């Protein structure tokens, strides 16, 4: 179970336990079960989760496609201080 799924379960449980008139019963409007029902709320949460997953995959793919300019990025060396200088200062 991932953290967003656990958070969604916690928020829906909290909303079910609080009285309907209490302020801030649901922290986000798309999680309001009174307005959208459980099916609508879960559909919106799933759509947002898929959107963020697709955005993360797109950003990762763009990072892998960009050119690696030699000398510009050196992954195996410390960018703070060179190894000959005695490590970190």
Question: How would you describe what is shown here?
Answer:
The protein has helices spanning 3-17, 33-65. It is mainly α and 89 residues long.
| End-to-end distance | 42 Å
Count of helix runs: 2
Strand content: under 5%
Unreliable stretches: none
Major sheet size, sense and barrel closure: none
Estimate percent helicity: 40-55%
The count of DSSP E runs of length 2 or more, i.e. the number of strands, is 0
Based on CA atoms alone, the radius of gyration comes out at 23 Å
Order of helices and strands: HH
The rough form would be described as: elongated
Features:
2 helices, 89 residues, elongated
What order do the helices and strands come in, and which of them pair?
Blueprint: H1 3-17, H2 33-65
Give a quick precis of the structure.
This protein is 54% helix and 0% strand. It is mainly alpha-helical.
């Amino acid at each position: 179970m991932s953290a967003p799924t656990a958070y969604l379960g916690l928020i829906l449980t909290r909303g079910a336990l609080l009285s309907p008139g209490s302020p801030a019963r649901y922290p986000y409007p798309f999680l309001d079960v009174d307005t959208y029902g459980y099916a609508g709320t879960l559909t919106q949460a799933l759509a947002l989760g898929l959107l963020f997953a697709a955005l993360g995959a797109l950003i990762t793919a763009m990072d892998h496609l960009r050119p690696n300019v030699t000398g510009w990025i050196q992954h195996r060396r410390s960018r703070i201080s060179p190894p000959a200088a005695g490590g970190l200062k």
